[in-house]
Structures are given as structure tokens and as C-alpha cells.
Design brief:
Structural class: alpha+beta
Oligomer: single chain
Radius of gyration: 13 Å
Shape: globular
Distance between the termini: 29 Å
Number of strands: 4
Pfam families: YchJ_M-like
Protein name: YchJ family metal-binding protein
InterPro entries: NTF2-like_dom_sf, YchJ-like_M
Length: 123
């Protein structure tokens, strides 16, 4: 793979992996959203839980997240628009039946203690 899962031209090791491994914090809402997409691609369920806002974590189950991330083949991410606290995107993937799917979402993020968190999204 030439670029990162999130669509950036730099390698995964130099793009989203440092965020997923906890070496660095994502500097923007968009960087967090891109790293969360990469986390789905590599099955990093802990990162997905840890970057979900504390008020919303009870709605997310690690086992279900991991199962869903592994059942799908993640193809590409397309960021349509982003502001300081929102990102609108399309995530392209093949489901467990190898049927092409597009997940469209307008996500909201919150900065707390110098860390960005995913709050929720409109599908």
C-alpha cells in the first residue's frame, strides 16, 4: 500500500498509526476522523472506543466494533467537508457478502483536555 488507509499519500506508519498507538494525539477533528477510519481498517477497536466521547461510550461495544471492522474490506475514505468540529465523509467498503457499500456521515467532534473525541454522526 503506497499511502495511508485514510487516503493521505504518506504511509500508515507516518500518518494514522502514531495516533492509533497513542504516541501522538490527533491535532484536528479531521485527523481524528481519518485515524478512526484507519482504525476500522486495521481492527483497532480499543482506539475507536478510547476516541469516542465519554458521554457516548456506553452505546459502543468493543466486541461489536471489532467484528464489524473485520467483517468488511475497507476500500477508501473521501472527506467531503470539514470544519473545526465537524467532518462530512463517505467511507467505501465491501461488506461480508462482498457487496459494495458507502457509509455517508456528518460527524461531530469535541476537544477536551487537548484531545479530540468523536461525539456522534448523522447518517
Amino acid at each position: 500500500m503506497s499511502g495511508c488507509y485514510c487516503g493521505n499519500s504518506v504511509s500508515f506508519q507516518n500518518c494514522c498509526e502514531p495516533y492509533i498507538k497513542g504516541i501522538k494525539n490527533a491535532p484536528t477533528a479531521e485527523a481524528l476522523m481519518r485515524s478512526r477510519y484507519s482504525a476500522f481498517a486495521v481492527g483497532a477497536a480499543d482506539y475507536l472506543i478510547n476516541t469516542t466521547h465519554i458521554s457516548k461510550r456506553k452505546y459502543h461495544n468493543k466486541r461489536d466494533i471489532l467484528a464489524w471492522s473485520q467483517a468488511n474490506k475497507w476500500l477508501k475514505l473521501e472527506v467531503l467537508a470539514s470544519t473545526e468540529t465537524t467532518v462530512t465523509f463517505k467511507a467505501y467498503f465491501l461488506d461480508e457478502n462482498l457487496k459494495a457499500q458507502v457509509h455517508y456521515e456528518h460527524s461531530t467532534f469535541k476537544l477536551e483536555n487537548d484531545k479530540w473525541f468523536y461525539v456522534d454522526g448523522e447518517y
